[in-house]
Design goal:
Elements (H helix, E strand, L loop, with lengths): L8 H15 L4 H8 L3 H8 L7 H11 L3 H15 L4 H9 L11
Helix pairs in contact: 1-5, 2-3, 2-4
Length: 106
Amino acid sequence: MGTEPERLWREVLGERLRQLRREREQTLAATAARAGISVQYLSEIERGRKEPSSEIIAAVLGALGTTLVEVTGLVSLDLTSRAPVTRAVRRSVQDRSVRSPLALAA
């Protein structure tokens, strides 16, 4: 029984950016122009093939009219909802040895 490899942050970010762009009914060309990047680069970001810098992410988010906080939260939820919980984390939660809020990093 094989386990799926963890998804990369850039892949999940790309999916979220594409979803947001489509919800706003923006084309790749229009969003890329507003962000000041090439259409090809935005396409590669959306497909999870490029690891954009924080400046590029901010520019794309600005072009989409959203914030880093909102998108980071969505990406985090996407990652944690599909990520396997390790035995150590599961045991800590079950034993209630962790009494404060628990944040899982992907």
